[in-house]
Design brief:
homodimer, 206 residues, mainly alpha, 71% helix, DNA-binding
DNA sequence: CTTTAATAAATGAACGTGCATTTACTAACT
DNA sequence: AGTTAGTAAATGCACGTTCATTTATTAAAG
């Protein structure tokens, strides 16, 4: 085996740096020059390793999808009620968008996802992983009696997912409260009509 | 008042053309050259009349906000049940995003709205106008007995708005069915638990 | 142990392109 | 004449990408 000059920094570091830069300026504002400087390289190197700017962004999207998949696929912490876990998971999954600017960057990525088939594939996978996770938590809530028996968990999962996405959007626009608060309220509103009486809310009233 | 050379085309035409171009390529992909060509002008003229590319886009945002405001502020068609009107209004308001590409453009604009204060102002106004419209329709539905008495219309309006926005987002991702269908289902899911029994749904079952 | 060849990685400088914007000028209208 | 609209050409900049070259590393050859 013939090895050449070793790589100074490995792809993971570059992708982390790229993510950080994207977090600041968004995918559109991203320039190879900035990423290169921050990682101690020169733009041409990035092109050589990732093929193009698009290649770099695509690799980042791939990585992010993998991370998100891991988040939604991870095993529950024990003894936590399913609906609490649902709220926790949702809030956590949207933590990287918890400022209007970061949310805007998220949207910018989504724009790419909707336009470019390769990006779309990853985004769709994440979206479906989330749907699965939500639905299985709802199903568990039904089986433990937190939700009314006979609840259509598939339909409800859709509602919860829509409430999540929609709440994020509204919050980014009106900027009232924190994203986490709003998500809790939004999910609660979607779920509360389906709670097993006498429960009225999944939020602890303090 | 001293008038000089008359304007060849008035601003409204330019804005309509701009909107059309944006619909094709998105706000980021917009170039003055293309707009200018389509309207029979030269880029410099657009700059002179709107100050800059940003000025043109801002004027367009202003116009769009005005249009949206008119839509949400218009008087109800008579004898239509409030909840039907709610669905109709929602579907209509999202008609210009009824393809994934158009939705992506909408999102791209939203990215600008979240980043640029002047754009944000218009977007927020539209959002609040929608909220108002939804809430007043819900209030009417309560008063006519379609919704249960005692329903918190403000909270429910929020839910409906979130369901609307979230449903749009999900549809753009998974592309199942038409946006209108999905919106109907999404709103129905949000409202059905609050309907006055024995009603279960606001969708006509055919 | 050198030396040398082969290979991969990284670089720096140049290139080209796409675009918004500026400037100087012309045309139309009162 | 004075005022406004429009234009053509030039300017300048910001980037992505290409290319020839240098550097680091290993494997074999002497």
């Amino acid at each position: 085996m013939v090895t050449g000059r070793p790589r100074g920094v490995d792809d993971a570091v570059i992708l982390r740096t790229t993510a950080e830069v994207v977090g600041r300026v968004g995918p559109a504002g991203l320039t190879l020059a900035v990423v290169a400087r921050e990682v101690g390289m020169v733009p041409a190197t990035l092109v050589q390793r990732f093929g193009s700017k698009r290649g770099l962004l695509l690799a980042l999207a791939e990585q992010s999808a993998k991370d998100a998949g891991a988040l939604f696929g991870r095993t529950r912490s024990e003894h936590e009620p399913a609906l609490d876990a649902l709220v926790t998971l949702t809030v956590e999954s949207m933590a990287p968008m918890a400022s209007p600017e970061m949310y805007a960057n998220h949207l910018a990525f989504l724009c790419i996802d909707l336009t470019d088939p390769q990006f779309h594939q990853h985004a769709l996978a994440v979206h479906q992983a989330q749907g699965q996770a939500v639905e299985s938590l709802l199903a568990e809530a039904v089986s433990t009696g937190a939700l009314r028996a006979g609840t259509d968990t598939v339909a409800l999962a859709r509602s919860v997912q829509a409430a999540t996405a929609g709440t994020g959007l509204m919050w980014a626009l009106d900027r009232q409260g924190t994203l986490a608060q709003r998500l809790r309220q939004g999910i609660d509103a979607a779920l509360s009509p389906h709670l097993q009486p006498p429960d009225r809310s999944i939020l602890e009233k303090q």
